[in-house]
Amino acid sequence: MGIFLLSCLLTSYRIYCFAGYEAPNLRKLADKVAAAGFYVAKAFEDTKLVISAIQSKGISAIGAAGFCHGAKVVVELAKDGLIQAGVLLHPSFVTVDDIKEVKAPMAILGAEIDKLSSPELVKQFMKIFSSKPEVPSFVKSFPVLLMRGL
């Protein structure tokens, strides 16, 4: 299951989007996030609506971090130019073609033991960003990355 976090820079706005929201542990986490006063969105389209609402208040610099399935949401936002920076952690279901269309600065953090985003795939992402010097990036696979507990 995935978690997606959207942070609006220079403000206290935070939006969390949970893929697989029906999973009990993710629902508990989403409830805690909402109870703390943050926005919680369940899907990409919901997130786009929240971004529009925030931008209507004059906020123009928005960054996003996506974990697992949430990484796909961040990539889609970056492809559409809706965010100004992104971070992907254990990016699931993100393709080489997706990365080719990313327009925002991006950090990608993978794990050497990850079956959904293998080190080979992460290396392909690095190669794509190397050919796009106009898009700042940081791409790395780590020996261990916590992927359990959600």
Question: Your description of this structure?
Answer:
- This protein has five helices and seven strands; from the N terminus they run E-E-H-E-H-E-H-E-H-E-H-E.
- Mean pLDDT is 78; it is low at 7-13.
- Strands 3-2-1-4-5-6-7 form a seven-stranded mixed sheet, with helices on both faces.
- The chain is globular and about 40 Å long.
- It has helices at 24-35, 44-55, 70-79, 96-100, 119-130, and strands at 2-8, 14-19, 39-41, 62-67, 85-89, 106-111, 137-142.
- Helix 3 (70-79) links the parallel strand 4 and strand 5 (85-89).
- Helices cover 34% and strands 26% of the residues.
- The chain has one domain: 3-Layer(aba) Sandwich (Rossmann fold), CATH 3.40.50.1820.
- It has 150 residues and is α/β, with parallel strands linked by helices.
- Residues 53-142 form the Dienelactone hydrolase domain.
- InterPro entries: AB_hydrolase_fold (IPR029058), Dienelactn_hydro (IPR002925).
- Keywords: Signal.
- Pfam families: DLH (PF01738).
- This is Alpha/beta-hydrolase superfamily protein.
Topology:
Layout (H helix, E strand, L loop, with lengths): L1 E7 L5 E6 L4 H12 L3 E3 L2 H12 L6 E6 L2 H10 L5 E5 L6 H5 L5 E6 L7 H12 L6 E6 L8
Parallel strand pairs: 2-3, 4-5, 5-6, 6-7
Antiparallel strand pairs: 1-2, 1-4
CATH superfamily membership: Alpha/Beta hydrolase fold, catalytic domain
* Beta-strand percent range: 25-35%
Multimerization state: single chain
Report mean pLDDT, rounded to a whole number.
78
Low-confidence stretches: 7-13
Keyword list:
150 residues; alpha/beta; Rossmann fold; seven-stranded mixed beta sheet; globular; Alpha/beta-hydrolase superfamily protein; AB_hydrolase_fold; Dienelactn_hydro; signal
